[in-house]
Structures are given as C-alpha cells and as structure tokens.
User: What shape does this take?
Amino acid sequence: MSTKTTSTKAKKPRILLAYSGGLDTSVILRWVKDYYQADVIAFAADVGQAEELDGLKEKALATGAKKIYIDDLRAEFARDFIYPMMRANAIYEGQYYLGTSIARPLIAKRMVEIAHKEGCSAIAHGATGKGNDQVRFELGIAALDPDLKVIAPWRMAEYRAQFPGRQELIDYCVKNGIKVLASAKKPYSMDRNLLHISYEAGVLEDPWFDAFAPKNKGMFLLTRDPEDAPDRPEYVTLDFEKGDCVALDGKKMKPLDVMLKLNALAGKHGIGRVDMVENRFVGMKSRGVYETPGGTILLFAHRQMESITMDRDMMHLRDGLIPRYAEMIYNGFWFAPERQALQALIDRTQQTVTGTVRLKLYKGGIYVAGRKSPLSLYNPQIATMDADPTQAYDQDDATGFIHLNALRLKVAARVHGPLLK
Assistant: This one.
C-alpha cells in the first residue's frame, strides 16, 4: 500500500506598516519582513507633508514592501479632525495647537481600514517607547479593532539590542542596500502636516538653546522670522458658519483650501511660532518647537467670532472643558466615548457662531480689526455709557444685585474676621 504525501507552502502572514520612508521605518520595514517572515504592506498618509512623499513608492518597494498605499487624506484631515478641534478652541497647556496629536487618529483609522482590506493580522509602527505617538496610534487601533495585533519594534528588547544607536541603523541600511538620506548626527527631528511642523530632540533637548536666534533661521520651513516679515500689514476676513470658517475675503472655500491659504498668509507674516516644554502622557517633560501658521489665525478668529455670538455662561462652560478636551486629543483618546460626548456638547455651542471677523497681520502679530454677525448678542445701545434708549438696563437694579452677591462675603467677614489684617 502506497501513501501519497503533499506539501503545502504555509501562507505568509501580512503586516501593515506605518511608513514614512525615513531611516527608522525603512529599517523596520526590512526587519519586520525578515523577523516575522511576513509580507509587509506599507502605508503612508498624505496629511500635508509636501515634498516628504516624493519617491516614496519606489523606495518602499525597493526596501521590501509587498505593496504600498499612499493616500491623500488632507481634505478629511481638515474637515473631520482640524475643524472639530478648532470649534473647541482646543490648545494643550496654553500653547500647543495639537498639530501632531490630531493627525494620529486619522492615520490609525486609515491603517485599520487597509489592514481589513489586505487581510493583515497586525499593524506595525516606528514610534519610540518614550513618546506619545505609540499611545495615540495604539489607542486608536484598539478602539477601532480590538483584535488587531500591534507590533512596536522599539519596545522589543531584541530590536533595541540590534540597534542601540543611529549609527547601527545606518550600517543596517548599507548592508541591506536600503537607500536613505541619513547621517550619524542629526540636529533635530521633524514632523510635518497640514496644521503644523514640530521640531524636537537633538540640540533642542537643551531648554536653554535659543531656537529663534538668527543662526537658526534655516530650521523653520513654514514661517518667516517676524523681523523679516513685510513692513506693511495685511488684512484678511474670515466668514464663519456654525463655528466653521467657510470663506476667506468673501471667497467660499472648503476646509482644506482654507488651511492652505491661511498657512501661506500667516507664514508670510511670521505668525504661529511656539517654543515650549510640555508634559508628555508617558510622564516626562519634553521640549518642542512648533510652527502652526494657519491654525493660529483660525483659532484667534474663531474666538473673536464667539465673543459677539455666544452666550456668556455657555462660553464659560465650554471654556472650562477646553483643557480636558485638549488633553484627550493629546493623549490619544479621539475615539473614546468621552471625547465624542464632549464633541456633541461643543458642536451644540457653535450653532450661533456665524458672521465675519477682520484681522490685521503684522510681523508675527494678529490684531482684530472688526467683527460682525447677524446673530450678534452685542447691543451697543445697552452697552453704552450714555443713557440707554431701550431702557433694557436700569442702573438702579445694580444696587440690589451687588447687595445679594456681597451677602455671603459680609457674613464670612463678621464670623471669621476680615481677610486683610
């Protein structure tokens, strides 16, 4: 009796990699492919990196990718991520416009979609074990598909042992014929998208280092040095409907076009530079330098529009939630139920935020030059210091108002004594 045996070749696992074409993700692409004996599908999201995407397809395939997706997500980024965040006037620790943070959930969303389409069992990324991005990516993936495995090589001991420093990464590329533009010494790292550019690490790790010194002008890519900006101011009007900017200088525009136009305009006048030390979600402090030109104008104008259209107590309620909302985005909880619930409240506050704001731009500064709205709550006849022709406000009423509000203070002072002794 004879037996017939057949051998079947095991199907390779498929892994999706968040790929930028830089040194780190180029090494990770080849390393993951070899380590897991897998087909690697590369993915690069176009969220406004500009020339950083040039030649990416050829580079990924030459490095060993089975396929690469390069998706233009700029319109979705502006419409569904930047604009909702701007309705909230979100800013982290009073300075950071959340440029990197707000892009990560969009990238995570698209990675999950492609992983499903390509039958990938895992998603890999090149975020370090010390940064915020690992958290943002993985919280987004967990919320959208809890069954997808995540591969983070920088959190694997064997990967760190093989690549203890930048030079080992470069040597690996040379050995494996991977073409990357890299040197052993890099003065800082960058992350660019439609909303901003961030600069960190390297020389910027010294908080005493002056990023705005004349010798460092070449670092900035989106904005002129304010001292070199035009000597004549420029004016721009922004039209808002329900909290969203829908037109510039009277011309209707989609969110993406608004961002592109404002970036160019603000950059010309040196607007949007920030240097700060922030608190990372993972526990350490980190120094970052940011350019957020268009976003700085947009948030400023939005706040001006709210000032004449938004009810006082509603504004104060929403303003009290800004730090929490910004923290959710910074920490990676865009898809969390609490962020979605808070977004619903914020969007409700924007129903009357409609009208026009006029701004003057000059050497790094933004100055309001006018605001108007068909839904304005500002009434000059009531606010006037002269006699109120509407008789809506009786100054005599202020006496009782003050007496009632002072009552608890008087009682406390008589019981405990005055605060000043």
User: Anything to note?
Assistant: The first strand starts at residue 14 and ends at 18. The two ends are 110 Å apart (CA to CA). Residues 1-7 have pLDDT under 50 and may be disordered. The chain has 13 helices and 14 strands.
